[in-house]
Design goal:
4 helices, transmembrane, mainly alpha, transport
């Protein structure tokens, strides 16, 4: 169950980072509200996953999902650049996440 919590927490990290961008520096109330609500749930689920998973594993997977997810959301939803170098960087993060999962005892 810890891995499910962790993946959902990572997905919510993508959601809150996207809506933080949409909040325009917290000047728009609806995206700001979504940012803080999803941030709260994301942190809560991360905390639950850390009951079982090692700190380094849980935190790096959570931030990795957020980093790659935010990159993909930026490209697909905001028209941000998808250069070969940025795609390679995202692929390297995914590779690190896979290695972290494979090396985790939980």
């Amino acid at each position: 169950m810890a891995w499910i919590y962790l993946v959902v927490a990572g997905i919510l990290e993508v959601v809150w980072s996207f809506f933080m961008k949409q909040s325009d520096g917290f000047t728009k109330w609806q995206p700001t509200l979504i940012t803080f609500a999803t941030m709260f749930v994301s942190f809560g689920l991360l905390s639950l996953s850390m009951r079982t998973l090692p700190l380094g594993t849980a935190y790096s997977i959570w931030t990795g999902i957020g980093a790659v997810g935010a990159f993909v959301a930026g490209v697909l939803l905001l028209g941000e650049q998808a250069s070969p170098m940025r795609i390679l960087a995202a692929a390297m993060i995914v590779g690190g996440l896979v290695l972290m999962k494979l090396s985790s005892p939980a």
